[in-house]
Give the backbone structure.
Amino acid sequence: MFNMKLRHLGWLILLLTVTTTVRSEDWREFRGPTGQGHSLAKNLPVSWSDRENVTWAVDIPGEGWSSPILVGDRIFVTTAVGSSDDPDSRNRSLRTICLQAGSGETLWDVEVFQQQHDSTSRIHGKNSHASPTPISDGEFVFVHFGTNGTACLTLDGKIVWKNRDVVYEPRHGSGGSPVFADDLIVVSCDGYDVQFVVALDRKNGDIRWKKERPATEVVKRFAFSTPLVIEVGGQKQIISTGANSVVAYDPADGSEIWMVKHPGYSVVPRPVYAHGLVFICTSFDRSHLLAIRPDGAGDVTDTHVAWQTARAVPHTPSLLVIGDDLYAISDKGIASCLDAASGEVRWTERVGGNFSASPLYADGRIYLLSEEGEATIIEPGSEYVEVARNNVNARTLASYAVVDSALLVRTESQLLRIENQD
């Protein structure tokens, strides 16, 4: 009897541990734990407005389209704050803000870099000077402001190190977010002048390796994509999409594993990986969706592209894979579902609106978010089934983050925690 009680107690402890893990799933990078837009959260809301089911709405000073991340009970966002004394100045205070997840209270607000007028590049109307999303290993938070610098902070806001040696000329501003690869922080740096991928040491910010992009005769070589780290045959690969090519790099030294050439530039969507295929979008001028087998070596353009399409392919939002299906939302609001293995189109539907944010899959539903602040919730499956539409009535380009059973939505001026109130 005593042993039986111990076994029941053990199962209870295990159940509580699993429940706690799911409930408090951290969201430590752009697009969440896998970097591919999936969450384990349950009981997420399907109905809200700018007031309904809003637990809190906090003003975020300055301008920034970085998505929020979550570590424990702390939310981190970056922003670029102009001068209150001179509103027309192009000077910016590049800052990191930490909020308490439950209340939205600001725990700290730290200036990381000063961006002076003479080093301030012109940005696209849909960009900001704080667009890359932070990343955390649970002990530190790493922030990236493109060519203006990368830094490591403690969770309490103390700056551990800074690196301002990664220099290039952004076109329309910076956008790609950092990723982890073993003990490295890897960033794609595709400027108008030079294009490369760089790996920094997580402990001190030193450059461990730097690899130039493959040579090309195409003039428009800038891009904004966030890499994705995958594992193929026991070997890790850093998949980084730039203008005119996507390259798989070896994290150990940055050497090229394979490459596929493509006709695009100004690439924004982050790659996704499923069913033994890497899926990328090539962005402008006409975006193509490529499904690539990542088991090749060298230039595999002619041998390892399993399928491709140019139909309603996004320039900006990333893709989403659920089961055997691949979902996309184009910048002009056309949603589509394809067979991930073959590229066969299952359905397309005009959702309406304009889109920059990447879709989220959570609690058995797909969450879309338009630039106009309207969220369209659909069911995954072989037919288009719309569940709900909700609007926060504010401009929204940042992607969702998830905390417990709540959605975090960043608008042009605020961060909202949205959840069921019953």
User: Anything to note?
Assistant: The chain has a mean pLDDT of 90. The longest helix spans residues 2-23. The first strand starts at residue 54 and ends at 59. Residues 161 and 204 are 6 Å apart (CA to CA).
